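Thread: RWD domain-containing protein, structure

OP (GT): Posting the sequence first so everyone is looking at the same thing. Length is 176 residues per the record. Can we get the structure tokens written out before standup tomorrow? I want them in the notebook alongside the other entries.
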Amino acid sequence: MKIIENSDDIFSNEGVYVNILVTPGVVGGPVNVCFKLRVLISSEYPRISPLVELLDPVGISDSDLSKLESDIKDVLHSSAGEYVIFSLIDFCREFVSSNIPSVDCSICFENFQREEDVNRSFCNHFFHNKCLLDYHNNLLSTYQSELGAILEKNPHCPKEMRPILRRLKWLGFVGA
């Protein structure tokens, strides 16, 4: 995902990379939408516009990412020859200001309407809280049924199974 606005080779040997994590202004809550903005500023800046890369997008759909790349190109073109870094950062922050992911829920494949409905996994999958709760309850019900059927067949488990059953009981998978 590169936005290259200038093909001069001056950037390969000269310049400074600036890496910025662009996030919404969220205080006390999870960040659901973010990306890294990598800007290469040459020694000829502002005469030569910087090169820009968008890295590691989270919670941004491919179509929104394409739109952001296109909009950044427009910002760079309209500000050619001017200092553009801060306006570029402001533009990117405005783009992610809502903190509502534009990707769909990984369970129901519907979009998100409110920030409070979003649950983000460690691997950056997004779920509606209700979808996750329904999934968990369904899984719990399935495992309880399966375990009940197994215990009916052999209620006198071997000794080595007792610690496992105690743990399952403690976790709520086995009835009292």
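GT: Both are above now. Quick notes for whoever picks this up: The longest strand covers residues 34-41. Residues 1-12 have pLDDT under 50 and may be disordered.
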